[in-house]
Structures are given as structure tokens and as C-alpha cells.
Amino acid sequence: MKYSKIIKIWLFIGLVMVFIQVIVGGITRLTESGLSITKWEVVTGILPPISGDRWNDEFMKYKQTPQYREINEGMSLEDFKFIYFWEYIHRLWARMMGFVFLIPFIYFLQ
To answer: Do 7 and 90 form a contact (C-beta atoms < 8 A)?
Structure first.
């Protein structure tokens, strides 16, 4: 079966994105960053905390999780920002992958 060049490019981009997601997921796992985001909003979750108050709010929510109590108890806000970053990138990249697959897929169905 012969596929058009645009479909091959789309699938190749998807393959590269999955590969990158595996790498970022591995970093997230190795840094024990997973679950550092206590609540992921589907629409508003695109932006990370920006102000100091928002960071403190997120950190206080994280302090109530079993992961904090059992693994990261006593960590600083700066350490929390580091693990939050990796979890944030992991989730944001997954969201982008969804769009990269879904939008062209719907288009190619026509």
C-alpha cells in the first residue's frame, strides 16, 4: 500500500514526539517528579504558576500528598519548582502530542 508523503511526514513527526516523550518521562521518573502537580486543569493547566503566591499555593498542595510525606519531606520551594518543571513538561508534551495526532487524523479521514 502506498501512502502520500504528507502522511509519512505526519507519522514520522508523531514517532519523534513519542520518542521525546519517553525520554522526558524517564527524566520525570528519575528525578521523582511525577505527581508533583496535584491538580491538572484541562484548559487552564497550560500555564504553570507564575507569581510567588501561586508557587506557594502549589507547594502547599504538594505538601499534603503522600509523595511529599514519604519521599520529599523537607524539600525547599526551589526543589519543588525543579520537579514541577519536569512533570509540567511531561504533561504539556503529551497534550501537544494529542493535538499532533488528532487534528491531522481528522483531516485525513475526509
So the answer is: no
Q: To the nearest 10°, the Cα dihedral for 82, 92, 71, 54?
A: 60
Q: Is the dihedral of CA 64, 66, 73, 22 positive or negative?
A: negative
List the chain domain ranges.
Answer: 5-109
The arithmetic mean of pLDDT across residues 77-99, rounded, is 94
* Nearest-angstrom CA–CA distance, 45 and 91: 9
What is the average pLDDT value for the chain, to the nearest integer? 91
The pTM assigned to this predicted structure is 0.85
Greatest CA separation found in the chain?
58
Q: Give the cell for residue 51.
A: 507569581
